[in-house]
């Protein structure tokens, strides 16, 4: 039996092949992965399993990655979870999308993807993420 997972990643991806591959990769790097097929599925799955970080595709059926991010930011428990969006398409409103913390353009290397998620987790552990979220909230008011 391997070591217990220390951190949980919510992976939201509508492509089954990509979702399974990315789940395997992140599990190999020691993350517990909650996999969801779209934003609605993600919201249902995290009610009893709060993730440490979210990695979501942008374009998905039922609820997009940005819609998911807006729901999470409005939720009293999930509002401060770091969110990364992974997409081949850069959204028009990316510069004003304060709901997301990191945008990762597809295609990207596995190394870059893992390093980015690890940096997001380190930011949470070091309190940097909370400072950035507070600054974003102040900017909106």
UniProtKB/TrEMBL annotation:
<feature type="modified residue" description="4-aspartylphosphate">
    <location>
        <position position="57"/>
    </location>
</feature>
<dbReference type="InterPro" id="IPR001789">
    <property type="entry name" value="Sig_transdc_resp-reg_receiver"/>
</dbReference>
<dbReference type="Pfam" id="PF00072">
    <property type="entry name" value="Response_reg"/>
</dbReference>
<dbReference type="InterPro" id="IPR050595">
    <property type="entry name" value="Bact_response_regulator"/>
</dbReference>
<feature type="domain" description="Response regulatory">
    <location>
        <begin position="8"/>
        <end position="121"/>
    </location>
</feature>
<protein>
    <submittedName>
        <fullName>Response regulator</fullName>
    </submittedName>
</protein>
<dbReference type="InterPro" id="IPR011006">
    <property type="entry name" value="CheY-like_superfamily"/>
</dbReference>
<keyword id="KW-0597">Phosphoprotein</keyword>
């Amino acid at each position: 039996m391997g070591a217990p997972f220390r951190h949980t990643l919510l992976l939201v991806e509508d492509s089954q092949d990509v979702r399974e591959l990315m789940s395997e990769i992140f599990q190999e790097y020691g993350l517990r992965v909650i996999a969801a097929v779209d934003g609605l599925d993600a919201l249902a799955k995290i009610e009893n399993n709060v993730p440490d970080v979210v990695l979501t595709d942008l374009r998905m059926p039922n609820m997009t990655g940005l819609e998911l991010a807006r729901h999470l930011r409005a939720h009293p428990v999930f509002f401060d979870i770091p969110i990364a969006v992974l997409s081949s398409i850069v959204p028009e409103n990316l510069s004003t999308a304060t709901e997301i913390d990191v945008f990762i353009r597809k295609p990207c290397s596995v190394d870059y993807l893992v390093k980015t998620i690890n940096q997001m987790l380190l930011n949470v552990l070091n309190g940097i993420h909370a400072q950035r979220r507070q600054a974003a909230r102040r900017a909106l008011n």
